[in-house]
Amino acid sequence: MNTKNWTLDRMLDGAYAHCQYCGAAIRWNYVLRHPQSPAYIIVGSECVKTLTDQCDPAVAFALTQGAWKQRRHYFYKRLRKTTYIIGPRSENTWFAATSLSGVRSFGWTFEPEIFQTADDAKLALARRARV
Ligand SMILES: [Zn+2]
Predict the structure, then answer these.
(1) The model scores a pTM over 0.70
(2) Number of domains within the chain
(3) Sign of the dihedral through C-alpha 115, 83, 110, 59
């Protein structure tokens, strides 16, 4: 299996005490899955960088664990020159989008999926957060 093909599935706070890749003691668990395997691996913030091409563990952490600022119709967070937004749609679903901060002409890139919960929308953005 290509080691870089893992993607972030979700994060857990302290469910596992050790990284399953390197054995280091960890607090935050990054649960990764691989397209060619039904198995999951639970790693720390260092091994996230080893096993995924795209997940920035610090940004993933901030997007999934931190508080978001609220505007009237959406929530947003700015991290490393990117603005992330999530917001409710009709029928209790959520959208998610990103934009480069301060570059209006770039516009918003909306995630193609519709999410059932705000946490699902945050996680989708976290999966794409690049180092
Ligand atoms: Zn590790």
Answers:
(1) yes
(2) 2
(3) negative
